[in-house]
From TrEMBL:
Keywords: Cell membrane, Membrane, Transmembrane, Transmembrane helix
Major localization listed first in the record, in broad terms: membrane
Organism field: marine metagenome
The protein's name in its UniProt record: NADH:quinone oxidoreductase/Mrp antiporter transmembrane domain-containing protein
Listed GO MF terms: NADH dehydrogenase (ubiquinone) activity
Transmembrane region(s): 16-34, 46-70, 90-114, 126-147, 159-178, 198-216, 222-241, 253-272, 292-311
Ranges of residues in domain NADH:quinone oxidoreductase/Mrp antiporter transmembrane: 14-306
GO CC annotation terms, alphabetical: plasma membrane
Amino acid sequence: LLLVTGLLGIVATGDLFNLYVFLEISAIAAYALLSTGGERATVATFRYLLIGTVAASCYLLGVGFLYALTGTLNMADLTARLADVGESPAKAAGVSLIVIGLAIKAALFPFHGWQPDVYTYAPPPVTGFVAAVMTKVSAYAIFRVLYFTLGGEPAAGSALVFLGWAGVIAIVAGSWLALSQTDIRRMLAYSSVSQMGYIFFGFSLGSPIALVGALFHVLNHAVVKGCLFLVAGGVGWRTGVSSVAGFVGMGRRLPLSMLAFAVAAVSLVGLPPTAGFFSKWYLLLGAFEAEAWIGVGAVVVSTGLSAVYFFRIFERA
């Protein structure tokens, strides 16, 4: 209940400090839930707590810089007052720290170090919910801050450039790392790193069609990745299998579970007529419009790698 309350507050609040409060409410609840999966889950969650504390500190320090410049924490008032404040190192530092803090919360490459172990060892029902929602809400918070609170600020433009390049690298690196995993949940964790790259790449393009694609991908990935983690956890609970190699014959043993896994995987790869196809289609249209050819290449390569690491499971099942 606390976790859901915090996540809803992040989406609904119009105040930068309240955003920090809700981030920490959701994080504390997540730490408690994730740590219940045994010793390895506790160690992974403690690492997440340390990194999350750094993220929260960066965000709060950035908010402090902007408050010192404007005297307000209300997002609407901040937009108007920042326009009257000239460019300064304090403004650039404030925006940078806010973006870095939220990027760590969203597990954007290269700030994703906490995610694989947490998603691998935490209880499957908790992982399914956290993987589906928590990082997406942080991504939405970045979108809201950069486009609606800091829109038009040069520092926000620079932050979007950074997020775009980080997203492009994440798209390929996450898929490549997922391909090399032997544990199904760790594979899905690195797949999430790649999918967050798609979202931030779309945010960085800035065109309406790219933003539609990015926000659509937020919703699509939330549903799909939650389904994949729940199926992987259910298979592990029923059969004790957690490795990719252990999925041999799983389609005959658990046909409905593997059908759900297959539909979600096809959507994640982006094959028509799934939702994943349309979100990637809009992202690619935005990339073509912006002539972001490196990003286009990254999407194509990542799609191929995603198809390969899911095909390894399908050919065994």
